[in-house]
Write a structure and sequence with these properties.
Blueprint (H helix, E strand, L loop, with lengths): L1 H25 L3 E6 L21 H14 L1 E2 L2 H10 L7 E7 L3 H14 L4 E4 L1 H6 L4 H11 L4 E4 L2 E4 L3 H17 L2 H4 L2 H8 L7 H5 L5 H9 L3 E4 L12 H19 L5 E3 L10 H9 L4 E3 L18 E2 L5 H9 L1 H7 L2
Parallel strand pairs: 1-3, 1-10, 2-3, 3-4, 4-7, 8-9
Antiparallel strand pairs: 5-6
Helix pairs in contact: 2-4, 6-7, 12-13, 14-15
Length: 338
């Protein structure tokens, strides 16, 4: 009798699993996949290698081939139309986004997308774009990775730099400070690090070569890609006073529109974690004229419960089975990833 009960329980569990699988496949949701950088060969960079996320051009092409056959890639116009009309998303709706304006987005990602007729969003911080300088995360990584000193002492804490893993751990700690501390406490951090690490800032030409140009962005928008704002300086908005948040949101949008000659309707919050922006930030983004804004703390987006000022993005790109599962079963896979 015990065996019968066990068999019945297993059969019911199996049927319930099938039911949820079929229900998940039928429910409409929007999955937004986020990238930062791609590489053609193994990345050899003096800057932050973690932003590649292990995504090669070959792997990205493999993702695009699967998406072409199994999903519907939405353009900015299509997504805005769904939001404005409060319509259900197409089945297996996906949007592809890239942050920070790296040159490989133009050299590698853009040709792969254009070849397949697939749109994507590219979110650009205007300070790095126009001043031709990399973001704080890359500068921190450069200084730590190139430093000749064996130990960094910062505010009474000693950080060992006696190998690649120790240096990466130090980089992670320093980058986290930028993400969480009030901006007043990190304003001069890179200058202080350069002095303590006895390392000069990267040459201007080296930084310039890592970034897309305005001309690149104009070509991409002309080919159907969307360019959105990523604020002006890429400082984490929650670390700023309200007036500084507003300036970042307004300036990032205004400068992009001036350079591209077209409206900028989309925003991606720098870092994009739950603690990187708040309700006041979202209100100011709406007031600045953005129609939608993207976060980066995972989750799928369902019609009816979607907040246009907090469209969730996923970085669940590897392994490949996990990536495809996040598109086929977003409610289950991405919910577990929060």
């Amino acid at each position: 009798m015990a065996m019968d009960v066990k068999s019945l329980t297993e059969a019911l569990a199996w049927r319930l699993e099938l039911f949820w699988d079929r229900l998940e496949r039928l429910r409409t949701a929007l999955v937004v996949v986020n990238y930062h950088r791609l590489y053609a060969r193994a990345p050899d960079t003096p800057f932050d290698p973690t932003v590649y996320g292990g995504i090669s051009l070959d792997y990205f092409r493999r993702q695009l081939r699967w998406l072409r056959d199994n999903a519907r890639i939405l353009s900015e116009e299509e997504l805005l139309d769904c939001l404005a009309r409060r319509r259900a998303f197409p089945r297996r709706a996906v949007a592809l986004t890239f942050d920070d304006g790296y040159r490989d987005n133009y050299d590698l990602a853009f040709p792969a997308l254009r070849e397949r007729g697939m749109p994507a969003f590219f979110f650009i911080p205007t300070g790095p774009l126009l001043d031709r300088r990399l973001g704080w995360w890359d500068i921190v990584a450069y200084l730590v990775r190139r430093s000749p000193v064996p130990v960094l002492e910062l505010e009474g804490v000693r950080h060992r730099l006696d190998g690649p893993s120790a240096r990466q751990a130090c980089i992670n700690i320093l980058q986290e400070r930028y993400k969480t501390l009030p901006e007043a406490k990190t304003r001069h951090l890179t200058a202080s690090l350069a002095e303590k690490l006895e390392t000069a800032f990267p040459p201007a030409a080296l930084q310039d070569a890592e970034l897309m140009t305005v001309e690149h962005l104009r070509e991409m928008t002309g080919a159907g890609m969307a360019v959105g704002a990523h604020t002006h300086s890429h400082r984490v908005l929650a670390t700023l006073a309200p007036q500084e948040q507003r300036r970042e949101l307004v300036e990032g949008k205004r400068l992009l529109e001036e350079q591209l000659g077209r409206p900028v309707r989309s925003l991606a919050y720098p870092v994009g974690r739950r603690d990187s922006f708040g309700e006041e930030t979202k209100r100011m983004a709406r007031e600045a004229g953005y129609s939608m804004a993207f976060s980066l703390y995972s989750g799928c987006n369902r019609p009816g419960s979607l907040d246009p000022m907090d469209i969730r993005r996923s970085a669940k790109r590897r392994p490949f089975d996990a990536f495809t599962a996040s598109i086929l079963y977003p409610g289950r896979v991405l919910r577990a990833a929060r």
